[in-house]
Amino acid sequence: MNKPSLQVMNYIALVQSSVISIDEVPAYLKADVEKWLTFFKTGTVVGGENHGLAN
């Protein structure tokens, strides 16, 4: 799995902090932001394996 870009991480932080909603993320980044938000919440990537990172 590739690491998220700095720009994607910035949008993840904004969404997690409720500064913006996922709908306000630019279209060209939205899929990556959603993928990484899911990973940070669940510890898995859609279709991936559990890495034990979820609470």
Write the SSE topology.
Elements: H1 6-16, H2 27-42
Give a brief description.
The protein is an all-alpha fold. It has two helices and no strands.
Walk me through this protein's architecture.
- The chain has 55 residues and is an all-alpha fold.
- It has a domain at 6-40.
- It contains 2 helices and no strands.
- It has helices at 6-16, 27-42.
- α1 (6-16) crosses α2.
- The chain is globular.
- It starts with 5 loop residues before the first helix and ends in a 13-residue tail after the last helix.
- The model has no long low-confidence stretch (mean pLDDT 86).
Structural class: mainly alpha
- How far apart lie the N and C ends? 21 Å
Q: In terms of per-residue confidence, which ranges show pLDDT below 50 for 5 or more consecutive residues?
A: none
**Spatial shape:** globular
N-to-C SSE string, H for helix and E for strand: HH
Q: Tally the helices.
A: 2
Can you give keywords for this protein?
mainly alpha
